Amino acid sequence: MKIEIWSDVVCPFCYIGKKHLEKALVQLPDLKVDITWKSFELDPNAPVDSNLDIYDTLAKKYGRDRNWAIQMNANVVDMASSAGLDYHMDEVKPTNSFNAHQLIHLAKEVGRQNEMKEALLSAYFVEGKHIGKEEVLSDLAVSAGLDESKVREALQNNTYSDKVVQDIEEAHRIGVQGVPFFYINNKYGLSGAQPVQVFVEALSKIASEE
């Protein structure tokens, strides 16, 4: 079974969706899956270095006040907690995710895509790291099993920028409205951080039909 997942490393629901899918797959031990992580940018114009915290960033994006953003994030923290994730939203450093996506493409070439994706999501939501900075990205990539010289070269030369853009264009072509978006066997779409049981039922049904 082929599962392509469009998501952003600065999307809190994308990390929750990843965990829900992984838990569902544990319940389906006979299902052979090939997962590919695809790039998507929630805010392509986000600065690498922002003087706003996550609450003011969210409030500004949606034209709401800071208290609304604090409450929204509190709800997300609760949802993440039930998925086994310990989000620290006060420590999140809003940034541009384009270079992080480039490294996910580099990681794909050496079979470490899932490790790279996990490292980036954890760094951003759990560890409060600045994943827009080249040195932080490099350290995370090395921890995920990538070669440091290739990481530096990819970031300095924008080696994978075309692949990031292609993923985003493909998302628009197939009608992705938001992320995470799970595209299964090139024809079935599941949108959002669905509950574990929804994944179990959907994947089981697709497997039986295929």
Summarize the structure.
The chain has nine helices and four strands, in the order βαβαααααααββα. It has 210 residues and is α+β, with helices and mostly antiparallel strands.
Description:
The protein is an alpha+beta fold and about 210 residues long. The longest helix is centred in the middle third of the chain and has 17 residues, at about 65-80. It has one domain (about 1-210): 3-Layer(aba) Sandwich (Glutaredoxin). The protein has helices at about 10-25, 55-60, 65-80, 100-110, 115-125, 135-145, 150-155, 160-175, 195-210, and strands spanning about 1-5, 35-40, 180-185, 190. It has a 4-stranded mixed β-sheet with strand order 2-1-3-4.
Measured on Cα atoms, how large is the radius of gyration?
Answer: 17 Å
Q: Order of strands across the biggest sheet?
A: 2-1-3-4
Strand composition percent: 5-15%
Could you say what the CATH architecture is? 3-Layer(aba) Sandwich
Secondary-structure element order, N to C: EHEHHHHHHHEEH
Secondary structure layout:
Layout: E1 2-7, H1 12-26, E2 34-39, H2 54-62, H3 66-82, H4 98-109, H5 113-125, H6 134-143, H7 148-157, H8 161-173, E3 181-184, E4 188-191, H9 196-209
Parallel strand pairs: 1-2
Antiparallel strand pairs: 1-3, 3-4
Helix pairs in contact: 1-9, 2-3, 4-5, 4-7, 5-6, 6-7
